[in-house]
TrEMBL record:
Cofactor: Cu cation
NCBIfam families noted in UniProt: laccase (TIGR03389)
The protein's name: Laccase
Species annotation: Prunus avium (Cherry)
Protein keywords: Apoplast, Copper, Glycoprotein, Lignin degradation, Metal-binding, Oxidoreductase, Repeat, Secreted, Signal
GO-annotated cellular components: apoplast
Amino acid sequence: MLAMKILISVQLLGLTLLCVGIFHCQAWPRYTFVVEETPYRRLCSTKNILTVNGQFPGPTLYARMGDTIIVDVYNKGNRNITIHWHGVKQPRNPWSDGPDYITQCPIQPGGSFTQTIIFSSEEGTLWWHAHSEWDRATVHGAIVIYPNKGATYPFPKPHAEFPIILGEWWKEDIGQLYNETIQNGGDPNISNAFLINGQPGDLYPCSKPDTFKLMVDYGKTYMLRLINSAVQEILFFSIANHKVTVVGSDASYTKPFSSDYVTISPGQTIDLLFTADQTPNHYYIAAKAYVGGAGIVYDNTTTTAILQYNGNYTSTSTPSFPNLPSHNDTKASVHFTGSLRSLADQNHPVDVPREITTSLFYTLSVNTLPCLKNSCAGPNGTRLAASVNNISFVDPSIDILQAYYYHVNGAFGTRFPNFPPLLFNFTAQDLPLYLQTPKQGTEVKILKYNATVEIVFQGTNLVAGDDHPMHLHGFSFYVVGWGLGNFDEDKDPLTYNLVDPPLQNTIAVPVNGWTTIRFKADNPGVWFMHCHLDRHMSWGMDMTFIVKNGKGLGAKILPPPPGMPPC
C-alpha cells in the first residue's frame, strides 16, 4: 500500500512550514509588505509617496539559491498596486510574478495578496518593485541571493557588501505625473533629481546633510550590489579614483573585468568589487543619465554619494569627482555592456541553445497615434505610442493568466507576428510618416514547452530612435550578439558568442541597433516582456508570451493560490 503524503502549510514564528508526510518539514521565511503613503522630504519640499513599510527604498529581502519565501502584501495606499520580483524566474508559478493585467489584477486599496517567491538558479543581486503605473519610482527594494550553504562566491569574499540603488525623484506626485502623461499624450516631465539609496546628494538644494556615505577601511575590498530603479533613464555610474571589477549581472556570475565606469539600464543589476586602495580621503560616487537618442529631453543633473575612508587624516575641502562619460556617449555605453561575459566555469556552466526551433524578429519603435483635432502633446498634435512589431499593447479587462488558465474567450488574441509586418530601412534618418502609426491590440505569442527561442530585437528610428532596455519575465536569456544599425541576417549571426554570452533578464538594445537573445521555453505560464523605460511601456512597447504546459506534473503551471485579487 502506498504511503499517503499529506501537504500542510502553517505559519509559525514568521516561517511558513511545508510538511510532506510526518517527518520532513521545510521552513520558508515570511515577510510582510504594507504598502502605504509616507511623507518624505527631498529638494526642500515634502510630499507623500507610496512606500513599503514606510521605507524608501524599501526593505531588502535575503535568500539563498533555490529558496522559497512568502510575502504578504497589504495595500493600505490610495491606489491599485502590484509587486513584481524582478529577475526571479518563478518556475511554474506565474501567479506571483506581479505585472498588472498580465498575471493578476491589481491589489485594490484595502486588499491583500500572499505571494510565493520561488528562487531556482538565481545567485547574486535582483530587486523587487511595483508593477502598476509608475509606482516603482518609490516602491522598490533589493533582493540578495547568497550561494547555497557550504558554497562560496567564485571570487574572494569581500570585507562587506552594500546595496546601491539608483533612482529618480519628482517633486510632483508620481501618480499625477502618470495620469497627466497618459491624458495629454506627450512625453512625461523629466525628473527633478537622481538618487543614490534614496538621497539626491550634495549637488542638489537642501540635500547635503543627508547625502549617502559609504564608509570603508583602507586596503579592504567591498562589494556593491548596484541596482537601477530609475523609471525613465539608463545611467552611467562611477567612483572617483577607484576602478571597479564587474563580477555579476542579473543574478548570474560574469568573468571579472575592470572598468572606470558602469552603464546600467533600468531593471538591471550589476555586482561590483572595489578595493579601498587610494589615499585616505573623501571621494565622490556619482551617476547621471545616458541618452543615446537625438533630441530627447532628459534630466541632466548628477546624483552623488560620498566614499569616505575611516581613520584620522586631513581631507580635501572638495572630494574628487569621477570622470563620467558624456550623456550621449553611445560608444561608452555599448562598450561596457558588450564586455559582459558569463563566468562559464565548471561550477557555473552555460547552456546556450544551439538548435533553434522558434526564430523571432521583433522591431522596437516609438510611434504616434492620431488625436482629435490634433490636440495631444505629441509631435504635430499626435499622441505618442510605442510598439513591438507594429503592435501597441492594450491592457485587457481581465488578466491574461486567468483568462488563459480558465479558458476565458475574447480576452486576448494569439496572432502576435513572428516578424515585422512592414519591412523598411529601420534606422534611416527620414522615414515616411505613415510608418509611424501602429496597430493596437492584445495579442500574445504562444510557445511550445521546451522550444528553443531566438529573438532578434531591432530598434527603429521611427519618431525618435532610442535605447530600449528589454526585460523578459520568467526567464533569463543569453545575449549572443548585438550591433549598431540594421541586423544583417547573413553576416551578423557569424559573430554570435555561443561560448560565454552573458546570462541576463534585462538588456539594453542600443539606439538604432540590434540585440539577439536565446533561451529555452521550459517555464510554463504567462510571461510579460517589455521595455523598462516606463514611458515606452506605458505607450505599448510590450507583449506577452504563453508557454504551454509540457508532459508530466513538473512541466505544468501550478494551481492558482487562494485570494487572487479580483478584477
